[in-house]
């Protein structure tokens, strides 16, 4: 069977989609909360365009959830604010880890490299703490792909419905 004829996404594709939907859902909620506070009309238009772009991205990506492995429909549940804020910190800490790792590879100065490495380790520990918190509270079902993907759909739906 040709690759484009497959009806089920591969696991690695599914996990990449999960990362994209999770990050953009959190970002969309944050943008929609923030846009109301912006007084500069040009910046507000830029925010509105970003909101529209992310809504389009989410609508396109969530269509692929029907093709993910072992996904069944679940009843939507209201997420606690702590879940949103924890997810926001998880994404932020993950971004910091990636950014520091990239910066370290570009560093020629020894003392700067040591400083960035120390800060990278702090970012890794922050990621570990927030992940453990989310896992313990049932906010990040890391070992249950079906629950993880259903959580993404809930968050994306919430973000898309938000005014």
Task: For this entry, give a set of tags.
Spore coat protein, mainly alpha, 2 domains, 0% strand, Ferritin-like, 163 residues, virion, 71% helix, capsid protein, 5 helices, Spore_coat_CotF-like
Please indicate the percent range of residues in DSSP E strands (runs of 2 or more). Answer: under 5%
SSE class: mainly alpha
* Terminal residue distance: 44 Å
Largest sheet: none
Q: What is the succession of H and E elements?
A: HHHHH
Share in helix: over 70%
Q: Judging from the principal axes of the Cα atoms, what is the shape? A: globular
Provide the number of structural domains: 2
> What is the average per-residue confidence, as pLDDT, rounded to a whole number?
84
Number of strands: 0
Poorly predicted runs of 5 or more residues: 71-80
Number of helices: 5
Give me the oligomer status.
Answer: single chain
Please state the CA-atom Rg, rounded to the nearest Å.
18 Å
Pfam families: Coat_F
Protein name: Spore coat protein
Main location: other
Subcellular location: Spore coat
